[in-house]
Specification:
Neurolysin, domain 3, 2 domains, three-stranded mixed β-sheet, two-stranded antiparallel ribbon, 23 helices, 5 strands, 63% helix, binds zinc ion
């Protein structure tokens, strides 16, 4: 057995940068269909020394000794990255086995054998309500068949987390890492969700009728949510062909020229092997940031492009003089999601619909209302999911992970029926739901700030671009809550969000 040397923090950081670059580039090549076989395991093996107990102890020791401030925060994040790498290496085999089993799962639909993943994507594009019901139910049944294995992986992961971090309570552990109280966040979100209930119910009845039709169930099943999200009946207006040029022009009005921005590598081509999900891969910010999309048709293409452009501009706009940790490593995802959400929010402006799609003001307002409805549905779903996750982890040490409350909470919040046995497939690690929800609150605050400072056409002004650029330059260093202070809000002030959802 070879004894590897423990790296000092500065050397650790630069080796981590090389590792993350190689791993990201490999992941990108596979995702966009440039490579068929992933050599990720080889890269992970080559950098195994980054994720050892000895290295973790060394980073933690350096963190303990550091004085408060920037250096201490940097060492904390390096330590947490090492910790996460150790845990994911230990779980990799079981997680891969589960993932491969899910990839291999097949189901039958209209005389055709479909992989589970294709079936899930197909449900979103079926025009017939009854066919979506049928295929939706089959995919949900097939997916639920993996619940025992999912639960085992979660249990093993949790016991590793407890052991490596030394903190037994999963909620307390995540609160320490995010630096916030999850309970206080939950209270603020519950109030915002309640305050917007009446407005939501009005929107819901109108848009369910228009998008799902009179044959819908009461309540309709969650199988129809992806279909709703595409706003399929409006597809002829929001065409696949116009998605890229219109989004580019939208960004140009903010002063961002994506095509001549050297740090952002655009991949907008339509290739059969390319995953249809839009994404950003920050391989080495700010110089190497990939923005990858593949338009499918429908308004969702525009929203996904603008969302990812927000992430790409954030990473590509960070100050190159920042230490690597503050260009690419964060405690969680709550910060970068503010910037994706604010750029995506442009697609909810009636003026944007009117300008780019040749619609009357009335049509534009109606279509913008559909996006508000979807936003409200997703916000309420996430709030309920977060509340369920708090309960799930609160009782985990006693019951090892049970679905109690999942169906009731999500169904009552959204008016869409969520199946109890979908709870594990719907679970994100480390309370990612809380990061999205913090971004929901913060991006609404930011929009309200921009509207106040710049005016109602904030979404078409280069001044907005300048203010965003100033925030982007700070990289991944600030917390979401620090951004609240910069724009003059209390972190849990949901006033702007409630106003948006009730619009
Ligand atoms: Zn995002």
């Amino acid at each position: 057995m070879s004894v590897t040397e423990v790296l000092r923090p500065a050397d650790y950081e630069s080796r981590l940068q090389r590792y993350l670059f190689e791993r990201s580039e490999e992941g990108r090549a596979v995702r966009v269909g440039e490579k068929e076989v992933s050599e990720r395991a080889e890269i992970v093996a080559r950098y195994r020394d980054l994720f050892t107990r000895e290295q973790l102890d060394a980073l933690r020791g350096a963190h303990e000794e550091a004085r408060a401030g920037e250096e201490r925060e940097r060492l904390y994040r390096l330590g947490k990255t090492c910790e996460a790498g150790l845990i994911s290496a230990a779980l990799a085999e079981r997680e891969d086995a589960l993932e491969n089993a899910i990839l291999a799962a097949r189901l039958e639909f209209q005389g055709e054998e479909l992989p589970l993943r294709s079936a899930q994507a197909r449900v979103a594009v079926l025009d017939s309500y009854a066919e979506r019901e049928e295929l939706g139910e089959r995919t949900a049944d097939t997916s639920a068949g993996f619940n025992d294995e999912r639960r085992d992986v979660i249990r093993e992961g949790e016991s590793l987390e407890a052991e490596v971090s030394g903190v037994d309570d999963p909620t307390a552990r995540i609160e320490e890492e995010k630096g916030i109280s999850l309970r206080e966040l939950e209270r603020a979100l519950a109030q915002a969700s309640d305050a917007s209930s009446a407005a939501y119910e009005t929107l819901r009845e109108r848009w369910f009728e228009r998008l799902l039709g009179p044959e819908r169930g009461s309540p309709p099943n969650s199988y129809h949510v992806a279909f709703l999200r595409r706003l399929t009946p409006l597809e002829s207006i929001y065409t696949k062909e116009k998605a890229v040029p219109i989004c580019m022009e939208t960004l140009a009005r903010l002063g961002f020229d994506l095509e001549s921005e050297p740090n952002i590598k655009l991949d907008l081509d339509d290739r059969p092997q390319k995953s249809p999900r839009a994404c950003v891969i920050p391989s080495d910010p700010p110089q190497v940031v990939h923005l990858i999309t593949r338009a499918q048709g429908g308004l969702h293409d525009y929203q996904a492009f603008l969302h990812e452009a927000g992430h790409a501009l954030h990473y590509a706009g960070c100050d190159p003089a920042l230490p690597y940790t503050f260009r690419n490593i964060s405690r969680d995802h709550a910060l970068t999601e503010i910037y994706s959400y604010i750029v995506e929010a442009i697609s909810r402006e009636p003026g944007w619909h009117a300008r780019y799609f040749d619609l009357s003001d009335e049509e534009a307002a109606t279509n913008a209302e559909a996006t508000t409805f979807m936003e409200a549905l997703l916000f309420r779903r996430y709030t309920a999911k977060f509340q369920f996750e708090l309960d799930f982890w609160g009782r985990f040490s006693d019951d090892g992970g049970t679905p109690g409350g999942y169906e009731e909470k999500l169904t009552s919040a959204t008016g869409v029926r969520y199946r109890s046995d979908g709870y594990l497939a719907d679970m994100d690690a480390g309370f990612y739901s809380a990061d999205y929800l913090r971004a929901w609150i913060r991006s609404a605050q930011l929009r309200s700030y921009l509207e106040r400072e710049i005016g109602s056409d904030w979404w078409a002004s280069t001044e907005t671009g300048e203010r965003l650029r100033a925030l982007f330059s700070e990289g991944t260093k600030p917390s979401s809550e620090e951004i609240a202070a910069r724009i003059g809000f209390e972190p849990l002030d949901t006033g702007p969000l409630v106003a948006e959802l009730g619009a």
